[in-house]
Amino acid sequence: MQNTPMPLSVAPSLASPAVRPPQGCDVDVWDIDLDTAPADAITLLDDAERARAQAFVHSHHRQRYIAAHAAMRRVLGRYLGVPPKVLQFDLGPYGKPALQQTPGTPSLHFNLSHSGNRALLAVGGCQPLGVDLEAVRPGVPDPALTALVLTQDERRQYDELPPAQRTLAFFSLWARKEACMKAVGLGLALEPGSLHVGLDLAPQSLQIPPSADRIELTVLHGPDGFAAALAVEGGIGRITRHRLDSACGSWH
Ligand SMILES: CC(C)(COP(=O)(O)OP(=O)(O)OC[C@H]1O[C@@H](n2cnc3c(N)ncnc32)[C@H](O)[C@@H]1OP(=O)(O)O)[C@@H](O)C(=O)NCCC(=O)NCCS
């Protein structure tokens, strides 16, 4: 497995009509700057996404949601060789979006995570996956949150850390748990306190019902000030990082 630091490719692949989807257990991870979307990004969204966008109270939350979904559509559309706007999604029982399959199109798994002004989009060819990105916020967690999120063993390891290391350790652990919860599609329906990942950042393999396959979990390099993780059912091959931001000009 190779987890190469950014930037490996600054979106030049988007100039071609279609991008080759990741093969086997390989995963492409797209890093998206949500503050650089073009003003007309909303035109790429469908009615349901526009309705969700309109429901945000704060305009910067609305703009970042629009930017994340426009970027997701643009990247996925390139893999499939179709315009971003025509993509349609089905939702799993706990809300996990999946591309609607049409005959002749390659199977593509993806997962999106956004936090603050950044997003990560993970794209894989063969197995369900989950990605999580968390802006590290000072003062978090409080005791109620640690009680909710940590297993007893994790709590013991956490309490042994010097106080100055605890916030980062917590967000890293939270990102790794949430990546797993998203890979199996349960999201927060899987209680984080029932899932043990520990504080050790080494890649690991976990059995998480209802997934029959083992889940492979690894830390991702996030932007400065963020924790990030990737979990994939069945295993992780080569990870290739890409960046989608103002460097590639128009998103259309
Ligand atoms: C999925 C979930 C863990 C996301 O947590 P988060 O840290 O706030 O958000 P992230 O930015 O990491 O991920 C959000 C993205 O994950 C995807 N997602 C949503 N539900 C998901 C799920 N169950 N599994 C995996 N991915 C999911 C979506 O693409 C979503 O993006 P969007 O909100 O812009 O549409 C959390 O919102 C959750 O558990 N939701 C489930 C809600 C539920 O149980 N609904 C019941 C069905 S009615």
Question: Which structural traits does this protein have?
Answer:
single chain; disordered N terminus; disordered C terminus; binds coenzyme A; Ribosomal Protein L22, Chain A
Mind sketching the topology for me?
Layout: E1 2-3, E2 27-33, H1 47-55, H2 59-80, E3 89-91, E4 97-99, E5 109-115, E6 118-124, E7 129-135, H3 143-149, H4 152-160, H5 163-183, E8 204-207, E9 214-220, E10 226-233, E11 238-244
Parallel strand pairs: 1-11, 2-11
Antiparallel strand pairs: 2-6, 3-4, 5-6, 7-10, 8-9, 9-10
Helix pairs in contact: 1-2
Description:
The chain has 252 residues and is of the alpha+beta class. The chain has one domain (2-248): 4'-phosphopantetheinyl transferase domain (Ribosomal Protein L22, Chain A), CATH 3.90.470.20. The chain is 27% helix and 25% strand. The protein has 5 helices and 11 strands; from the N terminus they run E-E-H-H-E-E-E-E-E-H-H-H-E-E-E-E. It has helices spanning 47-55, 59-80, 143-149, 152-160, 163-183; strands at 2-3, 27-33, 89-91, 97-99, 109-115, 118-124, 129-135, 204-207, 214-220, 226-233, 238-244. The strands form 3 sheets. Strands 1-11-2-6-5 form a 5-stranded mixed beta sheet, with helices on one face. The protein has a 4-stranded antiparallel beta sheet with strand order 7-10-9-8, with helices on one face. The structure holds coenzyme A. Coenzyme A (COA) binds at residues 65, 68, 94-97, 111-114, 130, 132, 178, 181-182, 185, 187-189.
